[in-house]
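note to self: dont lose this again. the chain is below, predicted strucutre after it. 414 aa total, dont forget to put it in the shared folder this time
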Amino acid sequence: MNLPLFIAQRIYRDNDPGRQLSRPAVLIAMTGIAIGLAVMIVAVSVIVGFKKEVRDKIAGFGAHIQITNLRAPSLYESLPVSMTEVEIDSLRGRTEISHVQRYSLKAGMVKTDEAFQGMLLKGVGPEYDVEFFRRHLLEGEMPQFSDTASSNRVIISRSLADKLKLKLGDKIDTYFFQENIRARRLTVAGIYRTNMTEFDNLYLVTDLYTVNHLNRWEADRFSGLELTVNDYSRLEDFTWELASRLEGKTDRYGQEFCVRNIEQLNPAIFAWLDILDVNIWVILVLMIGVAGFTMISGLLIIIIERTSMIGVLKSLGADNRTIRHLFLWFSVFLIGRGMLWGNIIGLSFYAVQRCFGLFKLDPATYYMDTVPVSFNWWIFLLLNAGTLIASVLMLVGPSYFITRIRPADSMRYE
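---
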């Protein structure tokens, strides 16, 4: 039988008002643990949710990986590449890839009677995954994108529509500059809003045929391929693997390929997101420190209150190690109860915010209108395990205070 555990359980379950431990000390200790763990769960779920939301929105405009022309000078001056159906199907057959789609870009300008705006016309084919834009569509519908005929229909962002005073069904004149000025009249088929201002103010989405015709490209050419991966955690490794496979290879027109992922294409945004990881660690360290110190103060109060019991146990032959383990086990019970309430508070916040979105954000600053939350079982379990281990380890040192209590001195507390 584990004697320290047995005695700790008896003390923990003792409900006799005359014999139970100091209520304020126990309450302070459990409250510190509960608040610390709840804050950690909320902070991690919000920051992880925020990073995931921003990442998914960026990926919605350009997938996870792009295969483009190596000689393309910039996003706004794309050069064509070409791949056969067999080559594209071989990419689709890779287990790491969940979706492959073509796209073409053409920089231009939208002009109305009252205003004008620079833009990037993006043409997509029938295989394009429209779920992202459909999820953020406010009005209208997603056109049927084609690579063989022009629909002259386009979807634009809410912010762009407001700037140009456009509404659903309006005709817009677009202008493109090459050797001469080319004009194309398009119809607003849908209006979307992602709150990613830099992208919303830039992209108009139409069919692949229209953009290829404006670029004067053959039907088998396009600005690039967009690839969506199954496991984002392996994005960097798979990018380099794919780049190595395509290195030195050319298409039928002699153009070399360039492989880049969204983190390489948007370094400033992802560097900013990486800084949020520092915030997570600062919050975790502070909260574990708060929880640990409240437990230390609670343990010391409990030891002082139980000085006479410690003296009796020592007089009966219990050594310091056994008594220290007794109080550490008792602390584990208190920590466990505090963690239970901390989990209830943290998960309740997550559930309420996930279902009702009570806490709002300024979309102009944070790219979204509600506080995002994300739940991960592994992170949740690590937070609980880390809180328990760190709290117990912080109590090991103060538990040595027991070694200074002598049976003779403890009689004064009778």
